[in-house]
Each structure stands twice: as C-alpha cells, then as structure tokens.
Batch of 3 targets.
Target 1
Amino acid sequence: MAAPAPAPAPPASRKRAAAPDHEPTASRSSTPAAAAGAKRPRRYALASVDDYEQLDVVGEGASGIVIMARHRRTGNKFALKHLPHGARDFDAVRVEAACQHACTGHPNIVQIKDVVADAKSGDVFLVMEFVGGSLRDELPRARPEKQVRFMMRQLVGAAKKMHASHVIHRDIKPENILNSFGDLKVCDFGSATFVNPTGKPYEECLVGTLPYTSPEQLAGNHCYGPGVDMWPLGCIMGELLTGAPLFGGDMTEKELLADLSANLDDQLNELFYDVLPELSPAAREVLFGLLAFDPEKRMTAAEALEHRWFAEEPKKANFAGFAPLFG
C-alpha cells in the first residue's frame, strides 16, 4: 500500500515579521514560580529601513541624526531620524513617537509616518515628512512685525495642538522649527512627554536648550506644565523681531535664573522702548504675556491666539517683500 501523500505546506504569513527583541528583558529563571511571575518581553512588528534609500544627512541632534531618504517603491522623500541601538531606551523612543503621533494632522507640526528598524543592528528610525531647513539657518535677521505675527500665529497654533493633545514639547527652539515655503513646522519630539496629573513631578527638569529654558525649570521645579513651551515661544518672538537671542549668552543655569529674577522687567522695557520703539502695543502685550516670569501668569497658547494681535485673518503675503525663507 502506497504511503500517504505529505500534507501541503501552510501558506506563508503576510504579516510583518516581528523585529528582533533588542529591549532589555528579565533574565530567565529555571523555577516555575519565577517563570510565572516574569513579564514576557514586548515585541514590535517594525517594517525594514531597507525600504528606504538613504541619501544625505540633513540634521543632527542630541538623540540622533536626520537623513533624507527616498522610499524605494513610491519614490517619495522622507526624513529618517536615526536612533542607534543602545543610545536610548526603547521606551523613550516609544514616548517620542507617541507624542508626535498624538499631534497628527496639524499643519505646523512635522508628521510622523512610521517607525522602522534595521534588523541586523537593532537601530530604530522614525519616518517623518521631509520639510527642509530650520529657522536657525535664517538667523540672525530681524523681521518686520507683520511677518513675525504670521510666523508666531503658526507656532502658537502648533503649541495649542500639542497642549490639547496632552503633550509638552520641552525643547522648542529655532533649530527645532522647520520651514516649508513659508509654513513653519515644529519638529524633534525627542524631549517631549505627556502631561502629568497636577502635582505629579516630572523626572527631568532641565530638559531643553538653556537660552530657551523657562524660569521655573531653571529654579529646579519638577512640577511644571505646558507653560515651559510658551516661554521659548516668547524668546523666539523676540529673536525674530530683533535678529538676536534675548537671553542666555555664556551664562550658567544659576546665572541665567539670577539675571531673569533681577532684570527681566528692565530688559523687556529696554526691548520695547529702545530696541523696538515702533513695535505695536498689541505685539508688546503678547510678548510680555509669553515672557511672564511666573508661569501662572504666562499666556497659554489658547489665550495668545485669542489676543487682538492675532485677530486679523492670516495672509501669507500681507507685508512688503515677503518671500519664503527657503524658497
């Protein structure tokens, strides 16, 4: 009697293969109790970075480099943020991606598209829309008030979206603002976090970049709030108007805090009446509100957008000589 024919092989799975488990895992124990109590390591099905042709390095930050890349199938360009394996805990990468994804849909926030990995090295890459150069590339250059209003409307709108999504960026600065033909986009959520319940402290206090760090962070207050994003927006507004950073220089954290504590009002009066005497009263009110030393008195993003300075309808060409910053 002939032997039965072998059963047909099961069809190949169409699901993404799970990425190699590069997260730290609990050591295995031979005892049943320990095995039962141990948490199983999480595994994530990440697409391959090999789907992208990596072209040029276009940026570099504390947590990784940014690479312009082309999707091999569609030909579309993207920005890959390369996060080398071991440089950051994978949970921190997940928080960054989740914070940025929570802000999806706003035109002034860089959109995250995917998270991919190099199966050999374990390196992780955030796939984002490709925009272009940063606002820092255009500084120092003073701008007219109407142009600054147009730019600040976009940035404050981005902050309103982040805060409504329960996200604090914590590192807003010109380097983390990209320009797409006059449209500004906040990027790099590497320092971002979700908002803690009232009274619950954050582990990190001094997170961002010193000249744009809020007074409460300089003072070591771990129970801060979304106001730490509004302070740097005030710094950026002043920098756009004057062409130079308002604070910091070569100061240490303690020196900057002491200077702001003693001299902030005098510095703002000098700015308004000596450096920018033609600045409108409405613009002064917004800048003064964003740079309130006390975070409880600082303007929120929603309050700022309701201010009369932003009351006019936004028009990209509402002042003489407008041109896209990177056009």
Target 2
Amino acid sequence: MKTAYSRSSSSPIPGYSSNAVLQLIVASGVGFVAFFFTVVCFQAFAHMRYDEAWEKVISVIAIPQSQHYSSRWWTLFTYGWSHAGFWELVTNMIWLYCFGSIVQTLVGYKQIIPLFICSLLVGGLFYIGSQFIPGFVGRAHLLGAHAAIMGMAVAAFTLAPKYRIYMGPTLGIPLLLVIVIFLALMMLNTSLNPTAIAMLAGGGLTGFVYIKLLNSGYNPGEWIYSTLARVETVFTPDERAAIEKHNKRRSQVLSRMYEPKQGISQKRIDELLDKILQNGYGSLSKDEKETLVRASKEK
C-alpha cells in the first residue's frame, strides 16, 4: 500500500453532502450551543445561579465518575457532542479538520462518522474501566470529543505515515510532527490524569483497529449508512414511482373525458393526451384544442 501522500493547501473542499468532517464540525457546534442555551434557560426559568445551572446540565450529558455511571449510562453516547468551553471547541474542531480531512481523502467520507462514533464509545469505555484500577480517579465530569480526534489522528497515521501537509508550494509538514504536537497538547490538557490518558488510548486504539479492518477488506462503518438508507426508503417515497402513479391517474381521467368520435381516432386522442401530460394543455395548437373539444361532446 502506498503511504507517501501529500495534500496541497489549495486542494478543493468537498460539498457538505459528501464532507463528513464538516458535518461533524457543524454537529459539534450545534451541541455546544444547545448545551449553553440549556444552561441559560435553567438560569432564567428555574431561577438558578450559573454554577448551579451548569452542574444541572453537565451532569446529564457528561460521563461521571464510575460510582455514578450506572445511573447515567446514556452519557457514554452524549459526552462527545459538546465541550465545556468555546476555545476547547475551536481547537478540537481544528484538529478534527486536520486529521479527519486526511482520512476522508484517503478512504472516503463514509468512514468518518463511524470512526468518530466508535472512537468516542471505546474511549469512554476505557475512561470508565480505568477508574477500577487502584489510584486511578476520574474527573467529576468528562466532556468533549478528544477520544474521537485521537482516533482520527491515529487512523490518519496508520493509513499514511509519510503523509505531508503542504502549507505552500514547498513547505510540507510531516504528519508525524503534527501528531506529536497534538499529543503534547492533549497531555497538557489532561494534566496527566491517568483516566483521561486511558480515554485517549482507547480512541487511538480504535483508529488503528478501524483502519486495519478496512485494509483487510472489512467495512466496519457500512452498517450505519445501510441503516440510514433503509430508513430513508421507508419514509421517503420513490419520486419516479409517485410521478408515474400521478400520470396514470391523470391519463385515466382524461381518457374518460375524451372518447373516440366520428372522424377522430383513438390514436389521435392518445397523441394529444400524451402531449398534455408531457407539456401541459397550453402546448396544444388551436386545431388540437378544437379536436379535443369535439371528442368530448356527446354524440
């Protein structure tokens, strides 16, 4: 497998429908806004102080310490879709774009969201499980997409360890150097908390295994898009079938209105009705309209 890749700073950006990285950035932004909007609503309508409202909301979406997890099991699925601060969100989204765009370029956009979700789940499980190790104490609340971004970083490096990001015609930054800087910043952000490091390790391991599965011919993310396609098929009618059904009903109505008369053949009437179905009644000439009028009159 070829591993020497590069991306120019002027590479075209895919459209939104085929840009899963951009979709995740938008989703994370929406989650962040929704989180703080809910905090403000609790302040305004429940008459809470800001810190009380913050604690009320974050306890519902962030992974708690292990002794409280059994009563808040759903937080494994929600903790990665919001962030505790604006700059944390911005920096995480920059890293997501950096590593996610590489993965998206090399294996396609349909692998991004499954990889993101799997990394979040496994990272969260590593975080919870590590707290059962003596001396490993988790944070009061775990919030943010750090595990998923670690998964993207490791996935990008596993795909193309010699990848270079070009900032100009000649300035190419090795992907390895970018990942080293990212890891250093992540370690500082965790304050070397062992449970947070375990979370990052879980996300990174997921990225590595995911790409190895892809290279071996197995598509671990296929089920997500196939499920969405089946749901869309159920709730979205086939447009072509709907049009054909409508035209068939319209043709039946028109056929009952216009029956063959003396001097006007069925073939001629069908030709005129087809023209109406395709281009509308206004497309008929004056003579054609008169022909239909005569065909519609009683004998």
Target 3
Amino acid sequence: MAHGGVPLTNVAYQGLAGAFSEAAAAALFPGASLLPRRTFAEVFAALEADEVDAAVVPVENTHAGSVADVYDLLRQHDSAKIVAELILRVSHSLLAVPGTRLEDVKAARSHPQALAQVEEFLREHRIQPEVAFDTAGAAAEIAEGGDPAIAAVASRRAAGRYGLDVLAEAIETSRDNFTRFFALAKNGDREIAERIPVALRSGPTKTSLVYKTANLPGALVRSLQPFATAWLQLSKIESRPSRAAPWDYVFYLDFEGDPAVWPSKEALSLMRTCCEWQQILGTYPAATKVIEPD
C-alpha cells in the first residue's frame, strides 16, 4: 500500500530498467511498481488487458520528432486515454564496466538517435559508435560483456541499474534535448490520474485528438478555422498515413481547452461538419516544467 492507504499502481513502459521511459514513469507515479515491456504494442496490450493500471509512453522528442508507432497505437486503442503529460530532459552519459578509464574505450553502443546526439563527444575522443536496440539495453549488454573497450551511451539511471561506472556526464551536443511523455489510463480513469503528483498536473487544460477530413477542397483549412474563431491555441498539428489506404492521411492535433465546455465544445462541433470522423485521445493538464533525469 502507498501512503494514505492507496494501493500501489502497476505501470507499464517500453524498454529495460534504466531507460528514460522508466525515469518518466517513476516521476509520474512515485512508488509505483514499474513493469518493462519489450515493445510499445505490448505496453498498450497490457493496459487494455488490465494487467497494469497505467502506462507511460514517449510521444515526441525535440530532435527526433514524433514517435509514430505510439500515435498509431493511441488511435487503435480507443480505451487508452491520456491523463497527463511530462517533459523529461534527455541527458546522456558514457558508461563502462568498473575500473575502465576513458582512454580505454574504443567503441560505444546505444540507440541510433542517442549516438547521433553525442556524435561530437565520440568524435573528439575517437570512439567508434555501434548501434544497439535501445540505451538501457546497451548498458545491460556492456555489463554482461565485461569488455572495458566497449562502453554504452545511456542514462545515469542505467549505470546504477547495471553496476557500471560513469566515465563522462552530459555528453550530448545540445542541451535542448527533451522528450514528451504521455501517462495513459484505461478510459481516462480519474482515480489513476489523481495518483500523479499535484505539481505535475497543475497546468492549463489541454486536449489531444486525431481526425480525418472529408475529401473536399479546403477541408483541412475549414477543420482548423473554428479554433481560430474561438481563439483556441493550437500547440501541435501533424499528418500521418491512416494505413487504411495508400496516400490516405489522418491529422493529430493538440489544443488548449476542454472539449466538454465552451468554446472548445462549439469548435469541435463545427469541426465535425468537415470531418469523416474525430477521436479524442485525452484531456489532461499541460506540462509546465522540465523534469531533470535522476
């Protein structure tokens, strides 16, 4: 039991222990039981099957852009609703087996995006990049292999998980590397949402949705006009293949507002007149601060 007699929450995330997704899940649900899953599809399946109470998934990075698989899964799993968002700073470290010196390292393994983000550091130290499935997985491989010539690019959290030394911290080229995460609960369960710290759910109301415009000239412009008329701020719009037919697209949109109340309710009603369908992915408090990795 958690403090106050509230049962501990089981939370699924993609990756291995020490992943940035685990850090995000720990921040959103302090004291929860964090359960790794191999793929994003398995995370959504666990939530749908009531194997977990909540899920935490990355949706967007300031350098790599949107996580397409997660947005597709949100559309496919209508019961998985967004109840919160979190912005996590992504800070990479060079990890190696205990006793290794920086000059001993000849190669570094990590996810391709992580390797790209630390390219300058690796080049400066003449370290050869090697691709791995993910950051935490690379750390686990290094710990198991025991070769001081091969390091991993991962989080400090991963170093603690796998008993590795941190040879260098904050080795990313740019400090403006942030990942946005969604906390998901089945059918938007408010009891689960209220287990998130108040400090992480005190921002203005925000809504994410996906929709398909009617096949008419100007339909996209007409679908957005109601938000401008209602003076509602859009914070994201992006097209994705619908996967229903070739060259068929849907649009993901974030706006500041609650679809249950005016003027958002009226804007969405007008929007439907030029859409084939519309799906609300969740209404939640917008993130107002950046969480630093532990």
